[in-house]
């Protein structure tokens, strides 16, 4: 049984030229989109070296996307696992990951906080995370419906686990998922690329932070993209 997170060696964040060929070419519409910041908690970020990629690119890109989304009126949703997770709530997660952040939480309750640089702001929504998909046991689907939104920008960690599974779940709910390739982090570059490739071929589209920021800037300016 695996009971802890792996050590994560630095790796180069994917660039625009590294992205997989897509099967669909959806256009991001800020009036249809919601920005998801997936599990960017101190506990899950602890294995990364802060002064190296991907962390050194991931965090500034998510921060920039947060600022742009709020300015453009795009709803922002976070997921965060709770520190206390009874075995019956974790269920099968125990078999793969042990007790999760529980032991670290008892020593330092702030370990499950969202990273300070990305902290939620008034008007943002923070959902309790229980499974790989952000939709599982959460009101995310209802929030999207209530906001009249059917596109989901996915950022955060880990790309090949919760981020990719959330994208698949969105697809199965007729919500268009956009993985923001250089606003994700993972156990390794191979795992990161795996998430991008699978999503591009099976359930969604893959964008860069620069592309998303451009789309959000156009929305703020009121200029119609040509």
UniProtKB/TrEMBL annotation:
Domain Isochorismatase-like: 34-211
Signal peptide coordinates: none
Keyword Chloroplast: no
Stored InterPro entries: Isochorismatase (IPR016291), Isochorismatase-like_dom (IPR000868), Isochorismatase-like_hydrls (IPR050272), Isochorismatase-like_sf (IPR036380)
Keyword S-adenosyl-L-methionine tagged: no
SUPFAM superfamilies documented for this protein: Isochorismatase-like hydrolases
Record keywords, A-Z: Hydrolase
Source organism, top-level taxon: Bacteria
Name the UniProt record assigns to this protein: Isochorismatase family protein
Organism name: Actinomycetospora atypica
């Amino acid at each position: 049984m695996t009971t802890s997170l792996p050590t994560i060696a630095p790796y180069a964040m994917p660039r625009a030229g590294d992205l997989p060929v897509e099967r669909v070419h959806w256009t991001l519409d800020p009036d249809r989109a919601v920005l998801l910041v997936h599990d960017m908690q101190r506990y899950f970020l602890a294995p990364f070296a802060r002064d190296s990629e991907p962390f050194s690119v991931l965090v500034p890109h998510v921060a920039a996307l947060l600022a742009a989304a709020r300015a453009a009126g795009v709803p922002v949703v976070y997921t965060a696992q709770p520190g206390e997770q009874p075995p019956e709530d974790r269920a099968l997660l125990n078999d793969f990951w042990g007790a999760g952040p529980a032991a670290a939480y008892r020593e330092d309750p702030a370990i499950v906080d969202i990273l300070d640089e990305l902290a939620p702001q008034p008007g943002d929504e923070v959902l309790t995370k229980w499974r790989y998909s952000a939709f599982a046991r959460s009101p995310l689907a209802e929030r999207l419906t209530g906001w009249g939104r059917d596109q989901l920008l996915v950022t955060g960690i880990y790309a090949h686990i919760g981020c990719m599974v959330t994208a698949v779940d969105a697809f199965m709910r007729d919500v268009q998922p956009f993985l923001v390739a250089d606003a994700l982090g993972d156990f390794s570059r191979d795992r990161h690329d795996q998430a991008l490739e699978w999503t591009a071929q099976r359930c969604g589209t893959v964008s860069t932070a620069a592309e998303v920021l451009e789309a959000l800037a156009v929305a703020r300016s009121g200029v119609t993209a040509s």
